[in-house]
Design brief:
With about 550 residues, the protein is of the alpha+beta class. The chain has 4 domains: about 180 residues, Arp2/3 complex 21 kDa subunit ARPC3, CATH 1.10.1760; about 120 residues, no CATH class; about 60 residues; about 160 residues, 2-Layer Sandwich (Heat Shock Protein 90), CATH 3.30.565. The protein is built from 19 helices and 7 strands. The longest helix is centred in the middle third of the chain and has 68 residues. The protein is rod-shaped, with a radius of gyration of 45 Å.
């Protein structure tokens, strides 16, 4: 009952009617009065039904064969004979459809693999079905055993050519959408190969019968043209037109059955070659379309990524500026406040006032250099490299922290190894890194007593191509497991920290070709970074 419910009555009835009609139209050059002909489009219709709609339609095939046998050939007087023929075809083509499904054949006929599986499986399957079909005739004494080969070849060629010509066009028609049909419009370019095909058919059927089979190969030219222009969607219907034209022409010209069989063998070669060429063209077009769609998708994603990166860069620049300008702006505010106090005191030392104002101006310039350097770094990702002496570079960077060092009573020591080479750096960016590391160290030692606030900055060679700068403090140090986490954006160990200073510093150092890391040691934190020496880039030390 489940099997019967799975069958759509309209599809089953339409198939049975189409089968009987095709069997009647193709009943040409038969062996006796039997349904053994060199062209069997009904076989292609049956396989297309089972592949497109499922094996549950096998009973419809059984009914169609029996109805055609009784209505067109009178059932040969033996109901059991008709039942045997119907069973052979129903079981044979159901088994062929099941084998194709096991081989993962796609009924949409979407690739060269699908076509190869179809051709190979159908060639073997139709040979077996034809052998069994003719054997039933032999068993009932309708065909002598010694004449088995002739009817078998005719049945096998008829079924094979019927499937290879009919099944592909039906499978392609099933997958066509209504929108695609509505978009299709005949064009002059499409009519040219069709006209060429008709002309070749006319020439072919106008020659003498003895030459007809040889001239079938002329059909290759328009078929190749159609396949290259329209792919398998054009090749399949063209083969149907050629097959119908050959049969009608042969019948009209009165060709012998042997000539028609020979023409059908040539037609078989034409069908296989044309289908493979058309499928190759269609598959290439599909791959190109997929690649183009993928390229468009990647381009869109790239644009989205670039847009996101621009937003991220702008956000990171704003955060970095806020972080790095905090110290010079605080220093400027302190110096200006000191200037106000000195101006209120009429006895104030003018030299000291001028010195304080000079420091405020210096901090203003430093803030401007920070803005300019960071803006250029985020805009281009590059640095304005120059040769610089190591010790003056360190001293100038820490000069901006003098007020903070004095306010927190931090003792500072700077140690450089003798004969240090010059380095190749963006001065503003590396000074920003040094100020950030030293500023973090000052903040970390705030809870210590004045005697325990020691900051040491050391510089030494790190191999032949780099200088290593080390910043040590006497603060509480890093917690276990924080050695790498402190470099993550927005990770801060300070209550009001932004968590961007170390991440930005590492990015700057790495853009110079160096690296920045922390080292675990008792009694404080240690941060080290390397910068390249000048002669590594072709300059003098």
């Amino acid at each position: 009952m489940q099997l019967l419910r799975a069958i759509h009555p309209g599809i089953a009835a339409g198939y049975v009617a189409a089968y009987v009609l095709l069997d009647w139209v193709s009943f040409v050059y038969p062996v006796g009065a039997y349904g053994i002909t060199p062209w069997s489009p009904a076989a292609g219709l049956s396989l297309a039904l089972l592949l497109a709609f499922g094996l549950q339609y096998a009973p419809a095939l059984l009914a169609a064969v029996a109805l055609a046998e009784f209505t067109l050939r009178g059932g040969s007087g033996e109901p059991l004979f008709v039942a045997a023929l119907a069973a052979v075809l129903a079981l044979g083509y159901s088994g062929l459809a099941a084998a194709l499904r096991l081989l993962r054949f796609d009924p949409r006929l979407a690739s060269l693999r699908d076509l190869a599986v179809l051709v190979g499986t159908v060639a073997a399957g139709t040979a077996l079905v034809s052998a069994c079909y003719v054997a039933v005739h032999v068993a009932y004494g309708l065909i002598p055993l010694e004449r088995f080969a002739g009817p078998f070849v005719r049945s096998w060629v008829g079924d094979l050519i019927g499937i290879l010509v009919t099944t592909p066009v039906l499978l392609l028609a099933v997958r066509l959408r209504r929108e695609e049909l509505r978009r299709w419009r005949p064009s002059f370019e499409a009519l040219l190969p069709a006209a060429a095909l008709a002309a070749v058919l006319a020439v072919l059927l106008g020659v003498a019968e003895r030459d007809a089979a040889r001239y079938v190969y002329l059909l290759f030219l328009p078929l190749i043209w159609i396949s290259v222009r329209a792919g398998v969607a054009g090749a399949a219907p063209a083969l149907v037109a050629v097959q119908i034209g050959l049969i009608i022409g042969a019948r009209s010209a009165g060709f012998a059955a042997s000539t028609v069989l020979e023409m059908q063998l040539f037609m078989l070669v034409l069908a296989v070659g044309t289908l493979f060429l058309g499928m190759a063209v269609s598959e290439r077009a599909r791959i190109q379309s997929e690649l183009l769609a993928r390229e468009v998708e990647l381009r869109d994603k790239q644009l989205d990524l670039e847009r996101a990166l621009r937003h991220a860069a702008a956000s990171e620049l704003a955060s970095a500026l806020a972080h790095e300008l905090n110290q010079p702006l605080s220093a400027i505010a302190s110096y200006l406040r000191a200037c106000e106090l000195m101006l209120e005191d009429s006895q104030a030392n003018r030299a000291r006032l001028a010195e304080t104002m000079g420091r405020a101006v210096a901090e203003t310039r430093r803030a401007s250099e920070v803005v300019k350097g960071l803006r250029e770094y985020f805009r281009t990702g590059t640095a304005q490299l120059e040769r610089a002496e190591v010790r003056p570079l360190i001293e100038h960077a820490l000069e901006g922290l003098r007020a903070s060092l004095q306010r927190h009573e931090v003792s500072l020591s700077i140690m450089c190894a003798p004969q240090m080479p010059r380095v190749h750096v963006d001065r503003v960016q590396i000074e920003t890194v040094l100020q950030n590391l030293a500023g973090n160290a000052i903040d970390a030692m705030a809870a210590n007593g004045p005697a325990d606030r020691r900051l040491a900055v050391e510089a030494e060679r790190d191999g032949a191509d780099a200088v290593r700068v080390t910043v040590r403090d006497s603060g509480p140090g890093l917690e276990p497991g924080e050695a790498e986490q402190v470099f993550l954006p927005f990770h801060s160990t300070k209550p009001h920290g932004m968590g961007l200073g170390l991440a930005l510093s590492r990015s700057i150092v790495e853009s110079h070709g160096g690296r920045l890391w922390s080292e675990a040691r008792p009694g404080g934190a240690t941060f080290c970074f390397t910068i390249p020496v000048a002669d590594r880039h072709g300059g003098a030390r």
